[in-house]
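Exercise 7b. Backbone tokens:
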């Protein structure tokens, strides 16, 4: 009979062999066989009951020690840039162990909140107890929800605020964080999702009164997980930054570069200047300067500022606030090209011919001083004959040469034929209380188009330079539309009596021909929207697949490094390619370009969704006082549950629920994009002009519910055939196949009639 080990011997074995802790491993280590295993099992159970061991499936471990392979949640980097993690499997007593993540060159970048599976080694250092080496990233943070807390007898519930009408969440009393009834809260999933019943959550932050005007953008920030507070080490690093001097730079301070931005611009990261080319070999040509804030001089690779900027990916803009990529010390001060103040920049000098074609260009790292900070409207007014005190002195020497160069670029643009959509942008105007004062469409001036063309030309120059120097970079990619989306656009055009040719390589000029044919007709907005929906989404990539929408082969974002991390990468690539300093693109960044591209493409989409949701909520708040009013609009989408209508004056989108369309059954045809009444034959399709009544507006979700009054100036017919249940009566019912065939024939007949 083999001697049974003592409890202490078993504990010592488990401590020395953390990967061999099953009952079989322990028995094998001590040579225990046969009936003696019964005594070993008894001792293990006693150790478990005494709290010395914790059973995990078929193995045992010391609860005061972390398992050798653990799930960790990454914390924010500390002031030294070290990355620590919280062990999610810690169940011991006393102080939670401190885990330092040891990163390897091949590891992906980890950010605060990431959950990882890591292999742990126990150490005895002053600032940490364990060192972790990544095995793999195992997913995002626990699912989070922003909603209204409704207090109950034993805790309460969270009613989500998104328009999709998500499931409610149960909150235990000890997980409510003291939230009050009706309060806006942010919560995260608590434990695994139940197969039955409502999921459980714990409140992690109380956000206050959901009806307060200032809460609108706050909801979007929390709902989409946009970081809105800078860590202390990031602020401290920004505060230590000093203005950059002339040393090692080209002096551009005598060039009258000026910034042209919206009147409410929060930063100025681009400036421009143009003059006639005095080279006799380039008659009618122009020289264009575009200077961009040298953010790379302040945000160095691997710094706290850099990590936070990459994590954010871009700035996010709301009607009442901006969530910047960089702290205000940089975005609003040192990196902003303020009038009359020397500022570090990276500039490009470009020569174009009389037809706007670029002849050559060169980049410099310089020091500039803005001659003026102007806004679009005053620049346009000056060109149109009414200059003010600021623009008058600059009219002949600076503004008119800018417009002359723009005139040449327009010629090149017309030849290139980039996609020319006509979709007015909404502008929400708030009063001092944060309430919506008015909703209008932004005015599009030649001053806007001038800056756009100058920036596009500079972006092309950046891409071409880096390609020529064989430097890695991030391209701005916009691929061709998918064939199925083009076919859908073609069907929409045919229904409007227009044509989009088949059997040829699609170019933007073909789409522009369609848009021009629709211009001025009642179908113009429909064709523009349908064309936009057929487009692929632009993204960032280290591989160059061209930019379809701009009809450009080589394109990179260079002109907005204050608000886009992609531009900062391009700046660093230019610095390295030209040998301008040690703050260029690093080997580590080059190795991780694909990962960085994916991340910042995701953050860009996140910001777009947050901005759109905020606009929807502001519009719902604005229209909530107009419930019962009638509006005109156009059907903008069709779904099984109803039709979406875009209102003319505000651009707001509302839903006409299918349940409100009458007593008849409506068949949804996804392929045709229609709803058709089984009794009346009424067909609701994208693009139809409608009159609706606003029946409900919910600011907290941004949802609008509408009642359809007329289609194409024809009053809604009365449908029949529904019993009390709202379902078709037996007398009206036919087989599914016969019904579908009948409706398809009606749809086809109506198409031919149009």
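Sequence design result:
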């Amino acid at each position: 009979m083999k001697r049974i080990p003592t409890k202490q011997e078993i504990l010592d074995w488990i401590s020395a062999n953390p990967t061999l802790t099953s009952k079989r491993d322990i028995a094998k280590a001590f040579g225990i066989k046969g009936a003696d295993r019964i005594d070993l099992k008894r001792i293990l159970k006693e150790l478990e009951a005494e709290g010395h061991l914790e059973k995990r499936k078929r193995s045992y471990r010391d609860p005061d020690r972390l398992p050798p392979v653990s799930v960790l949640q990454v914390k924010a980097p500390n002031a030294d840039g070290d990355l620590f993690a919280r062990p999610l499997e810690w169940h011991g007593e006393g102080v939670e162990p401190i885990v330092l993540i040891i990163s390897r060159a091949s590891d992906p970048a980890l950010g605060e909140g990431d959950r990882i599976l890591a292999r742990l080694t126990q150490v005895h250092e002053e600032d940490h107890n364990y060192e972790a080496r990544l095995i793999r990233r195992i997913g995002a943070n626990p699912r989070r929800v922003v909603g209204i807390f409704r207090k109950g007898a034993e805790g309460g519930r969270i009613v989500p605020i998104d328009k999709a009408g998500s499931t409610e969440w149960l909150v235990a009393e000890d997980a409510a964080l003291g939230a009050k009834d009706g309060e806006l809260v942010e919560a995260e999933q608590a434990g695994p999702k139940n197969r039955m019943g409502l999921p459980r959550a714990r409140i992690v932050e109380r956000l206050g009164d959901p009806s307060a005007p200032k809460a609108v953008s706050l909801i979007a920030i929390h709902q989409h997980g946009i970081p809105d507070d800078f860590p202390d080490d990031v602020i401290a690093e920004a505060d230590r930054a000093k203005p950059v001097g002339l040393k090692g730079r080209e002096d551009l301070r005598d060039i009258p570069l000026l910034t042209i931005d919206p009147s409410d611009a929060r930063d100025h990261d681009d400036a421009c200047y143009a003059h006639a080319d005095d080279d006799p070999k380039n008659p009618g040509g122009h020289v264009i300067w575009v200077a961009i804030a040298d953010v790379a001089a302040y945000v160095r690779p691997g710094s706290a500022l850099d990590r936070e900027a990459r994590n954010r990916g871009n700035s996010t803009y709301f009607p009442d606030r901006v969530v910047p990529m960089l702290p205000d010390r940089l975005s609003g001060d040192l990196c902003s090209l303020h009038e009359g103040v020397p500022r570090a920049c990276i500039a490009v000098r470009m020569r174009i011919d009389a037809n706007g074609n670029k002849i050559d260009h060169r980049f410099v790292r310089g020091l500039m001083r803005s001659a003026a900070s102007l806004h679009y409207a005053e620049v346009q007014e000056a060109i149109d004959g009414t200059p003010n005190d600021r623009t008058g002195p600059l009219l002949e020497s600076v503004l008119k040469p800018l417009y002359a160069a723009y005139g040449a670029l327009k010629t090149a643009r017309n030849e290139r034929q980039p996609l020319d959509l006509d979709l007015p942008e909404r502008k929400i105007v708030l009063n001092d209380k944060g309430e919506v004062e008015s909703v209008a469409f932004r005015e599009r001036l030649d001053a806007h188009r001038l800056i756009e063309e100058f920036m596009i030309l500079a972006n092309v120059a950046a891409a071409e330079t880096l390609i020529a120097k064989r430097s890695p970079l991030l391209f701005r990619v916009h691929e061709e539309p998918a064939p199925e989306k083009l076919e859908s656009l073609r069907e929409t055009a045919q229904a409007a009596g227009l044509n989009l040719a088949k059997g040829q390589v699609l170019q933007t000029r073909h789409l522009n021909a369609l848009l021009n044919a629709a211009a001025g007709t009642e179908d113009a907005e429909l064709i523009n929207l349908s064309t936009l929906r057929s487009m692929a989404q632009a993204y960032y990539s280290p591989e160059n697949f061209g930019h379809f929408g701009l009809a450009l082969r080589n394109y990179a974002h260079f002109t907005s490094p204050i608000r886009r991390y992609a531009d900062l990468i391009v700046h660093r690539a230019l610095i390295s390619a030209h040998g301008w300093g040690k703050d260029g693109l690093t080997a580590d960044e080059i190795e991780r370009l694909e990962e960085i591209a994916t991340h910042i493409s995701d953050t860009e989409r996140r910001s777009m969704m947050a901005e759109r949701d905020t606009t929807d909520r502001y519009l719902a708040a604005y229209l909530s006082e107009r419930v019962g009013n009638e509006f005109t609009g156009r059907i903008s989408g069709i779904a099984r549950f109803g039709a979406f209508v875009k209102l003319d004056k505000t651009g707001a989108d509302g839903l006409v629920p299918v349940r409100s369309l009458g007593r008849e059954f409506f068949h949804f045809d996804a392929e045709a994009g229609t709803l058709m009444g089984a009794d009346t034959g009424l067909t609701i399709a994208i693009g139809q002009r409608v009159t609706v009544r606003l029946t409900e507006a919910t600011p907290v979700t941004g949802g609008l519910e509408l009642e359809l009054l007329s289609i194409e100036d024809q009053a809604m017919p009365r449908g029949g055939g529904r019993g009390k249940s709202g379902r078709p009566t037996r007398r009206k019912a036919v087989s599914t196949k016969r019904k579908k065939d009948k409706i398809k024939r009606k749809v086809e007949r109506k198409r031919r009639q149009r």
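Instructor comment: The longest strand covers residues 358-369. The chain has six domains: 7-61, 69-137, 144-210, 234-475+547-607, 480-535, 626-715.
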